[in-house]
Specification:
Length: 209
């Protein structure tokens, strides 16, 4: 899918263009050699990077502005948003692609100010190798690697862990355990730049995001 903007015969001037995308991969911008393209400059702008599974990936079904990545961006007032989530993956699970630690170079290349990552239900596992000990070790390794390269990075974790759940009542006990493990790991990690936000249950039983 491509978009073509033709300003033939229009006045030459600087234009700001925003392209909302759903279930697509952004591959770049091509312009006539006499024109140029650049990111909007804003001295107060900060970059938000989102990692996770199918819940946060750009292809998550639904109206674009209501997908978790966009909701969080709106809450934070951020318009420089990068999303590298891949369905089926996790801190341990590589069911749909590389697990988080194996694609950490993408985060480092983007050099965000804030990273949001959620407790991932894919890390529940069913063969005994995914458990509290292995999950907490994976969280620590991820945080250590990120903060060693980006010491000023703020990492926000939390927001619900039941993949595909429409409300809290469908969340399994094992999914809550994943969230509890992340909360415990972050408490033990005790780093001022790593924060855990518990799932918020309001009267409509909706997720934090």
């Amino acid at each position: 899918l491509s978009y073509v903007y033709d300003w033939s015969g229009k006045p030459n001037k600087t234009r700001r263009i925003r392209i909302p995308m759903f279930n697509q991969v952004f591959t770049g911008v091509w312009v006539d050699p006499k024109y140029s393209v650049w990111a909007p400059s804003n001295p107060n702008r900060y970059r938000l990077y989102i990692e996770g599974d199918s819940i946060t990936q750009m292809g998550q079904p639904g109206n674009g502005q209501y997908r978790p990545c966009h909701r969080l961006a709106n809450i934070l007032g951020c318009d420089d948003v990068w999303d590298s989530s891949i369905g089926g993956t996790g801190f341990i699970s590589n069911g749909g692609g590389p697990k988080l630690i194996d694609r950490i170079s993408r985060v480092l290349d983007a050099a965000p100010d804030i990273l949001y990552v959620r407790p991932i239900n894919n890390d529940v596992g069913n063969d005994g190798t995914y458990n509290t000990t292995t999950r907490k070790a994976a969280y620590k390794l991820y945080f250590d690697t990120l903060l060693a390269a980006l010491p000023n990075l703020i990492i926000i974790c939390g927001g619900g862990s039941a993949a595909g759940a429409a409300n809290l009542t469908t969340t399994t006990a094992s999914a809550w355990q994943v969230e509890a493990d992340m909360a415990s790991a972050i408490s033990e990690y005790n780093h001022p730049h790593v924060k855990f936000l518990a799932t918020i249950s309001d009267t409509t039983q909706r997720w934090l995001l």
